[in-house]
C-alpha cells in the first residue's frame, strides 16, 4: 500500500458518515439536511407510536395520534378553543381531518362543542380532562424518567432543538408553497 493510498483510506475512515434513507436526496453539501429528514421521519413515527400507546394506557386504545393531539390541545389551559385556533396550533391544513377527530372525541364524551354565531368552540369534558391528566401521569412515569437531568439528550438542549424545529418548519412551509406553484 502506498503512502498516498493509506492517507486516502484514513481520510475516508474519519469522514463523518451521514445516516440517510434516500441517498438520491443527499445533495452534495446538504447531506445533513437529508440526515435531518430521516431522523425527523423516525422520531415522528416513534412520537406517534408513543402517543397512541400512552393514550391506550390512559384508557383510550382506539385514538389516533391526531385524535390525541386534538384532545390535548382542546384541554390546554382549560379554555375552549375555536376550530381555527386548533387548526393553527396543530398546523393542520385540511379541516376534514380535524372534523373527523372531533366527531370521534365527541362520540367518546371527551370534548364538547359550542356554537357562538358562525364560530364553533371546543373544550374538554370532565371525562376528557381526566383522560388528559392520566396521560400526563403516564408520561411522567414512562417518558420523562428517560430524559437526562441536564435536558440534553445527544448533546443538544431540548429547548434548543424545539427552536430549531420551529425555524425549519418555516423553511418547509415556504418550500411547500413554492412546490405548489410549479
Automatic annotation (TrEMBL):
HTH marR-type domain residues: 63-128
InterPro entries per record: HTH_MarR-typ (IPR000835), Trans_reg_MarR_HTH (IPR014601), WH-like_DNA-bd_sf (IPR036388), WH_DNA-bd_sf (IPR036390)
Asked if the Swiss-Prot or TrEMBL record annotates the protein with the keyword DNA-binding, the reply is yes
Does the record bear DNA-binding in its keywords?
yes
> Keywords in UniProt for this one?
DNA-binding
The protein's organism comes out as: Nguyenibacter vanlangensis
Q: Which domain of life is it from?
A: Bacteria
A GO molecular-function descriptor: DNA binding
Pfam families, sorted: HTH_27
What is the protein named? Winged helix DNA-binding protein
